[in-house]
Amino acid sequence: MTDITNTGKIEFINLKVSEIAPNPEQPRKFFSEEAHMELTGSITENGLLQPVVVRPVEGGKAPYMLIAGERRWRACQEAGLEVIPAKLVEGASEEKAYILSIAENVNRADMTIMEEAGAYADLKAAGWEPKKIAKQFGKTETHITWRLGLLTLRPEVSEMVDQGAIKSNLAWHIAQLNPANQMVAAMRYVRGDFDSEADAQHFANGLKMMESQTSLTNEKAPTAEETEKQKKAKSKTNDRLGKVEEDLIPLLEELAGMKPEDLAVILGDDLARNLRVVTRLYAKVQLTKNLLSKAQGIQRAKAEAFAKAAVEVQQEAAAKKTEAAAGVLKSVAKPAPKPQSTAKKAAAKPEAAKPAAKAATPAKPAARRAPAKKAEAAAK
Fold first, then answer.
1. 3-state secondary structure 111-150
2. Is 20 exposed, middle or buried (0-12, 13-18, 19+ CB in 10 A)?
3. Looking at residue 169, what DSSP letter applies?
4. Cβ atoms of residues 48 and 27 within 8 Å
């Protein structure tokens, strides 16, 4: 972890509270009201015992900016102190000051998990690798990676984590899910649907398998032979577990109720062997319990996915029904077409072509006129 004495010149001075400004890049955003009141009361009674850490700044609202100790600085204001002791660090760059502020807060119990994750994310954005961040703050690389993984949580779930309703280990498993499934897993855990945090993790992992379109969502209907084999396996497993419940559990309960000195006499030379048997049995029981819990998580996730799919089908059917009803109403409400006038009809309808006229028959030749003299003779 960074040693503050390696950052530059150190000087202890007294500063007016008004000469100090908070760091806008402070990694801690949440301050407990109860803890603040307790600290304010302590400072009012005893004064500020641990100096705040500041650095000089130019062009700011105040000549000094906090590197570490914002909670103490706030409490001093609340307590009415005008002058407080401060450790002045000169020559600290913006990056160095931010690292120091993280180092001040990262191991505090009252720094929230999401604040810690956000601080590491800022360093990563500045080019820091998780390995370097881990070395800087005395953490493991896995710790840094898991904290960074929490930044994909939707805001509602992040708030649950900050409030302590969901612990960091479970939060990481939930963060691997899509936003909708994050809310499903978080709400089911918070309302107490699981017997343990491990059960909730197995449920989240089951949802992740569903999202990845594993065999759970693409499984084919089993054949008759496979169905029969599954039935036999189920019957055999249930029978064996039934015998364990009938024979082994009462025996263990009986042994658990005995005194160690009595068992030492009763078992005699066989005590060591029986201890090895029970130790082996305990390990197998733990392993089996973990496997059954994972199986239950997958089963619950599968049921959740099927329930969600059923709701989507119902919604789709209802939407189609509504759309069809709207179409009927629209057709009923559509006004009838207005009658067109005769003139418009005539203009709209093209006139049929008239058949071509028959060819005219050739005219008979006109009668020839008799000469005038012959006509006169005939008349006489």
1. CCHHHHHHHHHHHHHCCCCHHHHHHHHCCCHHHHHHHHHH
2. buried
3. H
4. no
Which of 69, 56, 128 lies closest to 104, judged by CA?
69
With cut-offs at 50, 70 and 90, classify the pLDDT of residue 106.
Answer: low
Put simply, whether the predicted model's pTM sits higher than 0.70 gets the answer no
Task: Kindly compute the dihedral angle of the four CA atoms of residues 277, 283, 288, 293, in this order, to the nearest 10 degrees.
Answer: 150
Res. 328: pLDDT tops 60: yes
- Cβ pair 154, 182 in contact under 8 A: yes
CA distance 148 to 142: 10
> What angle do the packed helices 94-105 and 113-125 form, to 10 degrees?
160
Residue identified by tokens 């002058």 is: 83
Crossing angle of helices 179-190 and 168-175, rounded to 10°: 150
Which pLDDT tens digit goes with each residue over 145-171?
999 999 999 989 998 998 889 998 999
Tokens for 183, please give them. 């809310």
Given a contact cutoff of 8 angstroms between Cβ atoms, the answer to whether 52 and 68 are in contact is: yes
- Token duo for residue 236: 């055999």
Q: What's the Cα-to-Cα distance from 43 to each of 21, 36, 224, 363, rounded to whole Å?
A: 19, 11, 77, 139
How many whole angstroms separate alpha carbon 376 and alpha carbon 322? 107
Question: Measured between alpha carbons, how far is 334 from 112 in angstroms, rounded to an integer?
Answer: 63
Residues 168 and 196 sit within 8 Å (Cβ to Cβ)? no
Q: What is the DSSP letter of 86?
A: E
The tokens for 96 are 């160095």
Q: Cβ(88)–Cβ(54) under 8 Å?
A: yes
Collapse the DSSP code of 332 into the 3-class scheme (helix H, G, I; strand E, B; otherwise coil) and give the result: helix
- Closest CA relative to residue 86, chosen from 39, 42, 40, 54: 54
CA dihedral 197→31→54→61, nearest 10 degrees, is 130
